[in-house]
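Sharing a chain and its predicted structure for anyone who wants a worked example. Both blocks are below, sequence first, C-alpha cells second.
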Amino acid sequence: MQLFDKKFSGWINILKITITIVFLNHSNLFAQCTVGTTQVTWEAAASGSQTIIPTVGTAGGPPAAVTDAVPGCTNVNSINPFNFTTTITEVVGNVYDRIRSGTNGLYGQPYLTVVIDNFDGGCTTCDNTTNAPYANGSRIDIRLNFQYPVLLNNLRIDDIDAADIARAPTGQSSFQDVVTVSALSITGTNVPLNLSLGASGFVNLSGQTATAIWTSGVNNNLSENDPAGQLTVSSSQAVTSVTISFIAGSSAISPAQQAIRIGTIDVCCPSLIDITGNVFNECNGLSDNIINGTGLGNPANTTLYANLVEPTTNRVIAVGTVSSNGTYSIVDVPVNTTYNIVLSTTQGVVGNAPPSASLPTGWTNVGENLGSGSGNDGTVNGILTGIVVGTSNITQANFGILNNATQTTVTASSSTTTLCANQSFTLNGTVTNGVLREFFPNISGVLVTDLTSNATYPNSPTVSEILSTTIGPSGIADNYGTRVRYYFTPSTSGSYQFVIYGDDQTTLSWSGSSATSPLTTIASIPDWTNVNELTKYASQTTASLSLTAGTQYYFELLQKEGFGGDHYGILYRLSPSTTFINIPTAELSPVRYSWSGPNGYTSQNLSNTIVNAQPNQSGIYTITTTDFYGCQKTATVNVTVNALPTPTAASNSPVCVGQTINLTSSGGTGYSWSGPGGFTSTLQNPTRTLSTTAMAGTYTVTVTNAAGCTATATTAVVVNTLPIPTAASNSPVCVGQTIN
C-alpha cells in the first residue's frame, strides 16, 4: 500500500467521524453466505461501525476472537448457517491498529482491512509528522477457524505492495508487505495450499509466502484493486483453519504504516454426505445386543429429533426429524470429521449448543449403535457418539428406546428336558399378567366417539401402563379418554358373563381371537354409572359367552371422561354363580402367545403336554409373545427325545439236561437278564451250566442304550430230558446159536 498521507488522505475526515462510533458501538464482524455457492464475503453492519473488538484491558490489542455468523443461510435443518471465528494476534511488536482495521477501515466496506503501524492503540491523528517508524519483522496473524472442514475456493488478499519514498521532515520511510498463508486439517496437520497472483511483476511467490518487491527509491503505487497486488489462495484438501501472517518486510527503511485487504472468502464443503438411521421400539430391551425392533416415530404424540453435533465445539450442525416409521435423515453433512447425534424431544438450533437427550414420559433409552450388527456405543444415554464421517453416506445410525408398557416378560420351561421315546413331557410358559391401560388427555366431550375421532387416538397415548386389574383408577382428571386392552384366558371352561361400570360413556368389545380380528361391542353405558353400580342399564351386562379353558380371548374397553367423577371397571361371573367378582390377574395378559417347535409343532395354549414323544420331536420349543404395539419377545426350551434301543435276544436252544444254556443279546450298552428259576444276570451273553428242565422257559433281556433308554427282548429256551435206555438178550444160548 501507499504511505498514509498519499493513499488514504481522502479517508482522514471520514475516520475522524467513525472513530467516535467505534468506541461507542463495538460490534462483531459478520460474514454472509450465498446459498448454493457457500461464498462468504465481509458484510456491512446495519448501523454503527464494524471492527474487531480488542481484548479488554489491553489498549489496542491483541484483539479477542470474533465469531462470524453466516446469516444468509437460515434453514434451521441445514448445515448453514455455519460459524467461524476470526482471531487477530500481535505476534511481533505492538503494531495492530484497531481503529483503521475492520470493515469500516481504510478500504471501506464490505472488505476487511488489516492495518499495522506504530500506534498499538490505534492512531487517531496520524499524519506526516506523527507516524513514527516501527521495526522490520513486526507481525500480526489473522486466523480463520472454521466450524467444520471446508475447501478454500478463493481466499483473496489484496494490496500486497511495497514503496520507498521520502517523507518530510523525518527523512526516508518505506514499507514492504509480506504475507504468509498456512492451513491446518481436522487432524491438526499442515495442508498444502495453492497460491497464485493476479498479475506478475510486483510480488514474488516462494512456497506459501508472497513478498512485495521492494526497490530503493521506488513507489509501486498499487491500488487495492490492482491484480498485481492480489494473492488468491485455494486448497484441494479440507481445512479447519487458515492463518494469514502479515509481516513488515526486512527491506523497508523506517516503516510507518502498511495495510492489506482480505477481499473475498469463498469456501465450500469438500464433500457432503447424508446420515440416516432408525429409532426402534426396542421390544426385547436389547437383550440380544442388537438394536432393532419396530419403527417408532412419535411416542406419546411427541416428535423426536436427531440433532447432529460437532463434539469439539459442542454445537448443532444439522437436525433431522424422526418420521412416523422411525426413520430419520440428516442431509448435507460435511465430511472428514467425527460427530455425535443427540436424540431429543427438543429440536436443536443450528450453531447453538445441543439440547439434552430426552424421551417422552414412559419411554427409556436402551442403547445406541452405528451399524446393523450387535453392540452399542458404550453408554446408554440417547447420544450416539463417535460417528466418523468419511466420503460415503452413513446408514444405520440407530437408537433403541423402550416403552415401559412393553417391558413384559416371558419364560419357557419343560417338565423334563431329556426323555426317552414314548414318554411324555409338558411345556410350560409364563407371561406378564395384567391389562394395558392407555391414557389420552385433553379431549373434551363425554362420548366414546369424541375419543376415537381425536387425532391422538389410537397411536399416541401420553401414558401406557400395565395394571394388574380391570378396575381402573378414579378421580384422576377431566376431559380425557381411556383404552384398556387385554387377553382373557379362562382357567375353567364354561358360560361367562361380564359387566362394566364407568363415567362417562363406556363400552366393552371383544373378539373371538386376537386384537386384529373384528370387534363386537358386547356391553355399553350410554352416559355414566357410579362405582360398582352394575344394574343401572341392561346394556352393562353381556350375554352369556361360552369360553374354553386355556384359550385367549381379546377384550377392549373404551371410556370417555368429560368432567366430574371418573372411573371404570370390568367384573365377571361363571355360571352357575350369580355374583360378579373381580377378574383374577392370572387370567389377564397384555400379550398374545403361541408355541412353535420341531416337526411343525404349534399351540396357542400356555401349557401343553406332548404324549408318546418321538425322537423327531426333539429340538427347541419357542414361546412367542406379541404385545399391542407389535413387540415380540421369545423364550425357548430345548427338549431331547432319545430313541429306544433295538435289542436282540437269542440262545442255543434246545439243549439237553446237563448241557450249557448260552444266552446272547445286542443293541445296547447295558444288559439285564431274567429267566426261570429266579435267574438274573447283567452280562450281555450269560450262560447257565448243567441245565435242568427247570431252566427251560422264556428269558427276557432289558437293554439300555447310551441315553439311558431301555427296551426288552425275549428268547425261549427248551431243555430236553435225557432218554432212559433198556437192554435184553436171548441169553443163554449155546455155541453156534445166534445171540439176540
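Comments welcome. Confidence is low (pLDDT under 50) at residues 1-81, 124-129.
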